[in-house]
Amino acid sequence: MSLSTRRYAVSHDEAAQAVVANGMERNGQHLWFHLEGLKGIGKSTLAKELARLLPNHERRDVDCVAITAGDLGIPKFKEADDQDFVRYIANEILGLHTGKPLIITLDELSKAPREVLLPLLRLGLEREMFGYRLHPDSVVISNGNLTAENLGDGFQAHQLDRFTIMELRTPTNEEWIGNFAVPNNINPMISGWALQTPELFQDWRDVPNPDDNQYIDHPQAVGRRKGVTPRGLAKCGYILDNREGISDHLLTSMLAGTIGYYAAEQLMTFMQIADELPSLESIKNDPSNAKVPSNVAAVGLVVYRALSNIDRSWVGAWMTYMERLDESWGALFVQNVSDPRFNKDRQSQVMTNAKFTKYAHDHQYLFNTADVV
Predict the structure, then answer these.
(1) Residue 222: other Cβ atoms inside 10 A
(2) Shortest CA distance to 303 belongs to which of 334, 275, 282?
(3) Which residues pair with 177 in a beta bridge?
(4) Where in the chain is the domain with CATH 3.40.50.300?
(5) Burial of 362 per CB tally in 10 Å (0-12, 13-18, 19+)
(6) Is 145 in contact with 153 (CB distance < 8 Å)?
């Protein structure tokens, strides 16, 4: 995709907004969005955001490279007027039989074999398949990799005309943390590292010399089999969640197998700053005297750790501690807690706390308490 086309690449939030606004059938019209983007940036997880925005819809995900034509439907023999005929019954994975509004994600459609692609093209364009008609509020989206990645993605010209194609850009570090890592309780060590290392999210097309960014997955890098992707970072969070009893050697090996050797070694170095962190117990029991790290990255880890663990019992103590931090960290905390993607239980417990509301008011942070469940 050319630089001029990349100018109009969209964020995950923008893509979801477009689908909600134009993906449902209105007066016989609708748009079918096909999202292209680099591997591992969250194309498939867009359905999760759509499910949040469309709570009355049922989500159905179809891996188009893991199925055959026979998986889409099976024949059922019927008889009418003494004549036999065949009707196809759609596979349950599509949800067509439910009659409900659906969010159907055709994952890796641009890599699908022809016998799978053709019936799915009709589903997305005509909203009909095997005699089943989609509910008018249903949305169908598809995705695939950029052709520049040479992973086998491609459509014929007349097929392209069926889609509204958009490039889904790589998120920034702050977008990934706020929109994905915090709402999904990714290990705060990963969020802290990502905040300090924005180059983890750089698009390789902006790096002519792969040696200028040794973190990322770059097709021109010699011998670099793995690199950092947002998907890989999420997996690293899972590894860190379960690292108790694991040696540093084994931990580094697992991280390297997920995001590459260079990134793994840098993450291990970053984790050493954890020695500066105050314990959660010290913040809960003595917030006025608990240690405030001198390292900016360590302060970030403290804030993200609080976002991952906060509950009603120590919101007040945390607010006392947070008053001792630079105001920018307070802004980050309030912004994440008030985000509609934040954990609803923790959101309610924090945003109904008197110290939190006073802090937000005193610092002129705006949020809608009516949205708190």
Answers:
(1) 7
(2) 334
(3) none
(4) 3-167
(5) exposed
(6) yes
Is the distance from CB of 194 to CB of 205 less than 8 angstroms? no
pTM confidence score: 0.82
For the chain, how are helix, strand and coil distributed in percent, rounded to 5? Answer: 50, 15, 35
Question: pLDDT tier at 79 (50, 70, 90 boundaries)?
Answer: low
Most confident of 81-85, 292-296, 330-334: 330-334
* CATH number of this structure's domain 3-167: 3.40.50.300
Go through 194-214 and write b for each residue having 16 or more CB atoms within 10 A of its CB, e for each that does not. Answer: bbbbeebbbebeebeebeebb
What pairs with residue 80 in β-bridges? 83
Q: Take residue 199 and report the two structure tokens written for it.
A: 């180059």
Is the predicted pLDDT of residue 44 greater than 90, yes or no?
A: no
Per DSSP, the three-state class of 227 is coil
Measured CA angle at 322 (ends 316, 323), to 5 deg: 95
The full DSSP string for 65-128 is TS--HHHHEEEEEEEETTEEEEEEEE-GGG-GGG-S-EEEEEETGGGS-HHHHHHHHHHHHHSE
